[in-house]
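Support case: adenosine-5'-triphosphate complex. Customer-provided input:
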Amino acid sequence: MPSVQTKPIQVKGLQKSYKQHQVLKGVDFEVEAGSIFALLGSNGAGKTTVVKILTTLLTPDGGTAAINGYDVASRPDHVRQSISLTGQFAAVDEILTGRENLVMIAKLRYLKNPRQIADEMLTRFGLTDAADRKVSTYSGGMRRRLDIALSLVGKPQVIFLDEPTTGLDPEARIEVWKIVKELADGGTTVFLTTQYLEEAEQLADRIAILHEGRIIASGTLSDLKKMFPSAKVEYVEKQPTLEEIFLNIVGKKEGM
Ligand SMILES: Nc1ncnc2c1ncn2[C@@H]1O[C@H](COP(=O)(O)OP(=O)(O)OP(=O)(O)O)[C@@H](O)[C@H]1O
Ligand SMILES: [Mg+2]
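Agent response - structure generated as follows:
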């Protein structure tokens, strides 16, 4: 059994190629329990590849990754029991209602009282009014909230969110941020990927930047600000600036 001090996510020298294309060339990082860790990188940097390896959906070519002390390659079942994944693209069933989606997942996880669990999640994620509508009628933000709610059924200790707010409008993005913060406050370890520097800035205890197959910078936001004022980060920063303007105009900056 892993000891209580074991960091929930430990990654060493991770490598992965797709045919000739080496996407990960030796990726190292660790994530502390109950913290929010953001993996930043531009399109194609390999963020989803890292998430897939850590969630046992893809086998690395080299290096090791352990979740709660369990190696992803040799103990995938143990890993899966303690994690959940909200993928880059929503995994909700469009034909079912929000409530039906939640009940289905609770049943798949053999939980008692699936309807009660569904009700609690609907309340927590502000989806009670829409609970009995088909997901096909939901907005992008509502789908994303439902998607995150689904991944929390069964109270996983470590959750993976792959670009949880890409494609959401600024208000929906802030709702997701609030949910993620609450999760970490409750002791859940959160690993998220993002292309938005402001997202990392708002949420993450630690940030790592994945570029050309390696973590080229990592640390707290203030660590990064000191050491990494390059053109790439500047590019990422531009979008949140516009976002801030938008938020000021629509007057929704509450508490962030
Ligand atoms: N199954 C695959 N077969 C071949 N190449 C792949 C495969 N999956 C990913 N790639 C390539 O690996 C690289 C990294 O992809 P990945 O999806 O991990 O990037 P990402 O950082 O998540 O990008 P995005 O921000 O667009 O989601 C890309 O160049 C991609 O084209
Ligand atoms: Mg991706």
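The longest helix spans residues 231-250.

Case will auto-close in a few days if no follow-up is received.
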